[in-house]
Amino acid sequence: MEFPNLSDIKRAHTRIGNYIYNTQVMTSSTIDEMVGGQVYFKCENFQKIGAFKMRGAANVIMSYRPEERKNGFATHSSGNHAQAVAKAAAEAGAKAYIVMPHNAPQVKIDAVRGYGAEITMCEPTETARAETCKQVIERTGAIQVHPYHDARIIAGQATAAKEFIEELPDLHYMITPVGGGGLAAGSALTLATVSPTTKMVLAEPEAVNDTYLSFKAGKLQGVKNPKSIADGLLVSVGEMNFEIIKQYVHEVYCVSEEEIISAMRLVWERMKIVIEPSSAVAVAALLKNKEVFAGKKTGIILTGGNVQMNDLPF
């Protein structure tokens, strides 16, 4: 199992440069005071398609030659990765076939359709998603773009942490949410190679705590019937991703649904920016464990801002 290395991450950054934004970093004096330290937010909610997922999807799709793209690309996703594959495929002049669970937020379904993708709905389980995607690939001959279990996805997602640490090279901690683990593993790899003194911390809903359990046990622990407001994190961490996390992550923190909602509301009200619940998981972990981050410089990657506006939790 070969992990991406720094040259893979640098090549990914060059490959996707025309298809992503180098997103801005923001601060909040209110949150600094609450924590007793300096907190910096890398705003991937301002990324194309409204989430960091554009980085990994673009890296995979743009790594294929035009003649290899003729049957299009397929994936399964509850939303942000689906949008990223749809958008990146459109940029590459290829068709996208997206499998989405029927409980995916309507705002994300509409966005995927808006990028010209063909959507197939399925039951909201990992097994159903994977099986339906397999059927779509058999029917179309499309190339699968896995949401997280792919070294190219990890290298693409790693470019967010690369930009972050290049802008702020003296961070003591970096925090990201963890679902499938593409961003978590990519960020951890980036720090290990570029800024080994910066500690990588992951945040996860208590209701979907497979990465936390796996991290503590040292081997993969699945989670059955995950339910959380953080819809982007309702998957188990991938095998390659976990091997990287196990080696390079400092700590994994879990937060309650109430803590996620409270953190989401805080960012909306104080920073005047839209983040989705999955992003708020990292903010909630910061606030819940502020004694760890007091007196330190902490970077948080705000992973996305695709929210169903008529169904807010607050």
TrEMBL record:
The lineage of its organism: Bacteria, Pseudomonadati, Bacteroidota, Cytophagia, Cytophagales. InterPro entries: TrpB-like_PALP, TrpB-like_PALP_sf. PANTHER family: SERINE / THREONINE RACEMASE FAMILY MEMBER (PTHR43050), SERINE RACEMASE (PTHR43050:SF1). Its cofactor is pyridoxal 5'-phosphate. This is Pyridoxal-phosphate dependent enzyme. It comes from the Bacteria. Keywords: Pyridoxal phosphate. The keyword Transcription does not apply. Transmembrane segments: none annotated. It comes from Reichenbachiella agarivorans. Residues 19-304 form the Tryptophan synthase beta chain-like PALP domain.
